[in-house]
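User: Could you go from structure to sequence for me? I need the amino acid at each position, not a summary. Structure tokens:
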């Protein structure tokens, strides 16, 4: 069966339309009105092999927070929907990804339990304005929203880094690669990969 999802979310703060295919080739069409976030989501799609289309608008004249976080919420919900009963998936994935001086590691468990451990960003990273719009603090917010709404256990560690752009992008690429392995179908897996029989 196709592992696809299409969702919309509209509030007084943002309007999100998102579709994805977990069994894609990494094609994306991203327009969130936040250029650096577009860049990060494009990298996520490319390296997870998840086809992703996102159209988002919001009150970015106030702050990018609402638009970015709401997009991440919908992305998490779409991942959960597309995964269905999770039968036949590998379940676990991990990856370490460098970007010049930056190095990030991500571990994903498609556990059905939302949990995020996010560590290692250098002091002050959360205050950096990346690309003129995107504050470093939003990186954690995005992963938290995805993990919570997709029912994922996610560990992300920044092992090295100096440039805020590189640190953020390395995290998204590592998360993408870990997701790629975790959601992959494994022909040897019978049913749901859990001794409980459910995820």
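Assistant: Here is the amino acid at each position, in order:
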């Amino acid at each position: 069966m196709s592992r696809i999802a299409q969702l919309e979310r509209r509030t007084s703060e943002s309007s999100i339309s998102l579709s994805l295919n977990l069994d894609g080739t990494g094609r994306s069409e991203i327009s969130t009105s936040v250029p650096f976030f577009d860049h990060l989501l494009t990298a996520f799609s490319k390296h997870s092999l998840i086809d992703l289309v996102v159209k988002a608008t919001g009150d970015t004249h106030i702050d990018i927070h609402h638009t970015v976080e709401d997009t991440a919420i919908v992305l998490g919900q779409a991942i959960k929907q597309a995964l269905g009963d999770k039968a036949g998936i590998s379940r676990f994935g991990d990856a370490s990804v460098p970007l010049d001086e930056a190095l990030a590691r991500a571990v994903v468990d498609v556990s059905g339990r939302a949990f995020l451990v996010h560590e290692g960003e250098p002091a002050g990273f959360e205050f950096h304005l990346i690309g003129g719009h995107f504050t470093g603090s939003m990186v954690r917010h995005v992963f938290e929203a995805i993990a919570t709404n997709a029912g994922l256990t996610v560990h992300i560690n920044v092992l090295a880094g100096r440039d805020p752009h590189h640190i953020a992008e390395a995290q998204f690429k590592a998360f993408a690669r870990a997701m790629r392995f975790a959601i992959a179908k494994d022909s040897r897996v019978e049913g749901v990969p859990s001794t409980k029989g459910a995820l």
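One structural detail worth keeping in mind: Strands lie at 4-10, 14-21, 28-31, 51-58, 92-99, 102-109, 115-119, 129-130, 134-135, 153-160.
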